[in-house]
Design brief:
alpha+beta; 5-stranded antiparallel β-sheet; 4-stranded antiparallel β-sheet
C-alpha cells in the first residue's frame, strides 16, 4: 500500500491542476445539487420490531385518514391572577383563538377546551389541541405564522399563552461557538507549523471535504428522508477528521523536506507513510459509523452512513488534494523545524533540507530533546507508575457512569426561553406532570366475538393500575374492531415510574390476549422513547463486539501484533467509560451545567452510549494508528522497543497533540447548539478525545509498550504468513529511488 500511495502522492503533486479541478468540480456539483434539491420532507422515525411501532402501523391501517404522523400543537392558556378561564372575557378570547385556528388549510381538527374537558380543576389553565394533516417539518410557513398569530391575539386579550407540540419545531442551529472551534483549530495549526500557508492547507481541504459531504446530504435529504441532525453530525466529524488527516500528511511532508528530499519526492513519501496511517485510521472510523446499522433504527443508520461517507471523502482528499496544494505552495511550506516569517526567521540549513530543524541546537552542539521525547523517556523510566496513575484517574472519572439513566428528550428538556418548554410547565402545573406524556393504548379486537366488551375490560384493567391518573373512554374505529384509549400517567414522561406503567399495561394486555384473543398495544411518544432506549441497550453489546472485533482484526494487519491491538481496545474502553461518566456528571447531575448551557438536567439520551462507543472508538484508533505506526516503523528499522517508543513520540507527539486539540475544539464548538442531542454529543466527544489522546495514548500506551518490550510486537508465525503485508511503515519505499519516475509513469498509465 505504501508504494501505491507514494506514487499517488507524486502524481497528485505533479498533476496538481487536474486534481484541484476535479475537487472544485465535485464541490460545485454538490453545491448545485443542494441548492436545487427540494426541501427535506418528513423524517420518519420508525423503530422496527418494537410494540410501539407495531401499534403505530396498526393505527394507520385501522384509522385511515387520521394522519397519525401529522404535527400536533397544544395551545395552553392561563388566566390572569384572580381570574378563571371560564370567565366570559377569557372564554371569548379562547373561542376566538380556536375559531381562527380551525380555518387553516393544513389543520385536521381543533379541540375546544370547553367541550373537551380541557380546563384544569382550579379553572386557571386550559388548552386547545390542534392536529395537522402533515408532519411538523412539512408545515407551510403560513400555517406556523397563523398559529403564532392566534396565540398572540389571545395574549393581547390579557391571557398567558404558550404553544407546545412539534408544530413549531425549529431546525437546530449550532451557534457561534462552532466558528470559535474552527478558529481555535486555525490557531493551533499556525503554532504547529509556524506558517499561515502550511496551517491553511488542512483547514482548506477539511472545509472542501465537509462542503462536498454536507451538500450531498442536503441534496439527498428529501429522497432519503435525512433529518437535520444528519448533516450536523457529518459536519462535526468531517471537520475533525478532515483537519487531522491533512495535518498528519503535511507534518510528514515537512519532516521529509528536513531529511533533504526534493518537494515532489517528499510529497510522495508523506502520502506513502502518513497516508497509509490515514487510510487505516479512516477505515476504523467508517467501520464504527456504518456499524450503527446493527441497532436497526433507520434514523441512526442513515446518520452513521452519511457521516461515514464524509469521513471517506476526507481520507481521499487528504491523499490527493493535500499533495496537490503542497505543489502550489512550493517553498512557502518550510521543512520541519524551520520557522516562517510569522513566528520567526528560518534557520540556516533548514530550507536546504537538512534535519537540523528537527530539534533545537543549544550551545555545545548536542541537540536538545523536544517535549515529546522528554515525556517518552520519563514514561519509559517509570512505566508502572504512569500506567497506574492513568488507569486510576480514568476509573475515577468513570464512577458517575454507574448512575447512568437513559431516556430521550422531550419538551421538558428544552430551554426555559422556548414557548414549548413554557407550555410544558403550564400543563404540568394545571394537569399534572404525566399530562405531557400521555400513553395511547391500541386494542385490536378484530378476532373477538364481543369487541365492545373487550374495550371496556381493557379500560377497567388499566384504571386499576398504579400511577394512572386518568383513562379516557375507548374510541372505536368505523368498523368497531379496534379502539384507542388514552392513559394519563401520574409521573413525567421520562420518569422510571412511567416506564414501569408502560410495562404494566403490556403485561395486563398479555393476560387479556390469553383470555379473549384481543391484542393490546401501547404507543405514543413516551412509549416510543422507552422502546428506543430498550432497543439501544439490547444492541450495545453486539455492536461493541462487531465494531471492536472488526477493528481489532484490522489493527492486527496494520501493526502485525496481537497485544498492541488488544491494548488499544482496552484503552478505548477506559476512555469511553470516563467520557460517559463526565456526560452523566454534567447532563444528569448538573455539574458545570451553567458553563455548558444545560438549563435542564435529566436522563442521558438513550443513543449516547452506543453512539459514543462507535464514534469514539473510530477516533481513538486514529491516534493509535498515527502514534504507534511511527513506533512500529522505528522498531522494524532496527531500534530497541524502548527506543522505538521514544522515537515515535519524538516525531509524533507534537502532531498528535495538535490534532487532539483541534478535534476537541471542533467538537466543543457544537456545545452551543440549540439541539440538546447535538450539545450532548459535542461535549461527550470533546471530553472523550481529551481522555483518549492525553491519558490513554500519551501515557498508558507508552507505559504498556515499555513494560511489554519485544513481546508487544509478537505475532505467531502462522498468522504472520497468513496476513497480507500492507506495509504501513513504508518499508517498500526504501527500494525506490528518489526520482521514482518509472513508477509514476506506470501509475499514470493505470489511472
Amino acid at each position: 500500500m505504501a508504494t501505491f500511495l507514494y506514487k499517488l502522492g507524486r502524481l497528485a503533486f505533479r498533476r496538481r491542476h487536474f486534481v484541484a479541478l476535479i475537487w472544485v468540480a465535485l464541490l460545485t456539483l454538490a453545491g448545485v445539487g443542494a441548492a436545487s434539491a427540494p426541501p427535506a420532507g418528513t423524517t420518519s422515525f420508525s423503530i422496527p420490531g418494537t410494540e410501539a411501532q407495531k401499534a403505530f402501523d396498526l393505527l394507520e391501517e385501522r384509522f385511515p385518514g387520521t394522519a397519525a404522523d401529522g404535527a400536533t400543537a397544544r395551545v395552553v392558556f392561563k388566566a390572569p391572577d384572580g381570574e378563571k378561564m371560564t370567565d366570559p372575557d377569557n372564554k371569548a378570547a379562547v373561542e376566538k383563538t380556536v375559531s381562527d385556528l380551525a380555518d387553516g388549510s393544513e389543520v385536521a381538527s381543533v379541540a375546544d377546551p370547553y367541550q373537551g374537558n380541557a380546563v384544569s380543576q382550579d379553572g386557571t389553565i386550559a388548552y386547545a389541541s390542534v392536529k395537522y394533516d402533515v408532519s411538523g417539518m412539512e408545515l407551510e410557513d403560513s400555517t406556523k405564522d397563523a398559529l403564532k398569530d392566534a396565540a398572540q391575539q389571545a395574549r393581547d386579550a390579557g391571557l398567558t399563552v404558550e404553544v407546545g407540540g412539534d408544530a413549531l419545531q425549529a431546525v437546530p442551529h449550532t451557534g457561534a461557538t462552532e466558528i470559535i472551534g474552527i478558529a481555535v483549530a486555525a490557531v493551533v495549526l499556525v503554532i504547529t507549523f509556524g506558517s499561515l500557508v502550511a496551517a491553511g492547507l488542512p483547514l482548506l481541504t477539511a472545509l472542501i471535504g465537509v462542503g462536498i459531504g454536507v451538500s450531498s446530504i442536503t441534496a439527498l435529504a428529501s429522497a432519503l428522508e435525512l433529518g437535520s441532525t444528519t448533516s450536523i453530525l457529518a459536519m462535526m466529524i468531517g471537520l475533525a477528521v478532515g483537519i487531522d488527516y491533512a495535518l498528519f500528511i503535511v507534518s510528514r511532508y515537512r519532516a521529509e523536506l528536513a531529511e533533504g528530499r526534493e518537494r515532489e519526492e517528499a510529497a510522495g513519501r508523506a502520502v506513502g507513510t502518513a497516508g497509509s496511517a490515514v487510510v487505516f485510521a479512516g477505515l476504523t472510523v467508517v467501520i464504527a459509523l456504518v456499524g450503527l446499522a446493527v441497532v436497526n433504527i433507520p434514523m441512526l443508520t442513515k446518520m452513521g452512513i452519511a457521516a461515514a461517507g464524509t469521513v471517506a471523502i476526507a481520507v481521499v482528499i487528504a491523499l490527493t488534494m493535500v499533495p496537490a496544494l503542497l505543489g502550489y505552495a512550493g517553498r512557502r511550506v518550510k521543512p520541519a523545524g524551520a520557522k516562517g516569517k510569522l513566528l520567526g526567521r528560518t534557520r540556516k540549513g533548514a530550507d536546504k533540507g537538512t534535519d537540523q530543524g528537527t530539534e533545537k541546537q543549544p550551545e555545545g552542539g548536542q541537540p536538545k530533546a523536544n517535549l515529546g521525547t522528554r515525556w517518552a523517556r520519563f514514561v519509559v523510566r517509570r512505566p508502572l507508575a504512569v500506567l497506574l496513575l492513568g488507569v486510576i484517574g480514568l476509573g475515577a472519572a468513570a464512577v458517575p457512569a454507574a448512575s447512568l439513566e437513559l431516556g430521550l428528550p422531550d419538551d421538558g428538556s428544552q430551554p426555559t426561553s422556548t414557548t414549548q418548554r413554557r407550555a410544558y410547565d403550564l400543563l404540568s402545573e394545571g394537569f399534572g406532570p404525566g399530562f405531557n406524556g400521555p400513553l395511547m393504548v391500541v386494542v385490536d379486537a378484530k378476532g373477538s366475538d364481543a369487541p365492545q366488551q373487550v374495550f371496556t375490560d381493557v379500560s377497567d384493567e388499566i384504571k386499576g393500575l398504579k400511577d394512572v391518573v386518568a383513562v379516557t373512554p375507548p374510541q372505536p374505529n368505523k368498523s368497531g374492531d379496534t379502539a384507542t384509549i388514552t392513559v394519563i400517567p401520574d409521573s413525567k414522561p421520562s420518569s422510571v415510574q412511567t416506564e414501569d406503567l408502560v410495562h404494566a399495561i403490556r403485561d395486563a394486555g398479555a393476560d387479556i390476549k390469553a383470555d379473549t384473543g384481543a391484542e393490546t398495544l401501547v404507543t405514543g411518544s413516551t412509549a416510543m422513547n422507552i422502546d428506543v432506549s430498550q432497543k439501544l441497550n439490547d444492541a450495545l453489546l453486539p455492536y461493541l463486539v462487531l465494531v471492536v472485533g472488526l477493528a481489532f482484526l484490522l489493527l492486527i494487519v496494520v501493526f502485525r501484533s496481537i497485544l498492541v491491538p488488544l491494548k488499544a481496545a482496552l484503552g478505548f474502553l477506559l476512555s469511553v467509560m470516563a467520557a460517559l461518566g463526565a456526560v452523566v456528571a454534567v447532563f444528569q447531575w448538573g455539574w458545570l451545567s451553567g458553563l455548558m448551557g444545560v438549563e435542564e438536567t435529566g436522563p442521558v439520551m438513550s443513543m449516547m452510549p452506543i453512539f459514543m462507543v462507535g464514534v469514539v472508538f473510530g477516533l481513538a484508533m486514529d491516534y493509535e494508528v498515527f502514534l504507534v505506526t511511527r513506533m512500529r516503523e522505528a522498531y522494524v528499522h532496527g531500534e530497541k522497543p524502548s527506543e522505538a517508543v521514544v522515537t515515535g513520540f519524538k516525531h509524533g507527539a507534537r502532531v498528535v497533540t495538535a490534532a487532539a486539540v483541534i478535534m476537541m475544539a471542533v467538537f466543543a464548538g457544537f456545545i452551543g447548539s440549540s439541539e440538546s442531542m447535538i450539545k450532548m454529543i459535542g461535549f461527550g466527544l470533546a471530553i472523550a478525545v481529551f481522555f483518549d489522546a492525553f491519558v490513554v495514548r500519551m501515557a498508558i500506551v507508552p507505559a504498556v509498550l515499555a513494560l511489554l518490550g519485544k513481546k508487544a510486537w509478537w505475532l505467531p508465525k502462522w498468522l504472520d504468513r497468513a496476513l497480507p503485508n500492507v506495509d504501513v511503515e513504508g518499508e517498500g519505499l526504501r527500494t525506490l529511488g528518489d526520482d521514482g519516475k518509472d513508477e509514476d509513469r506506470e501509475l499514470v498509465r493505470t489511472t
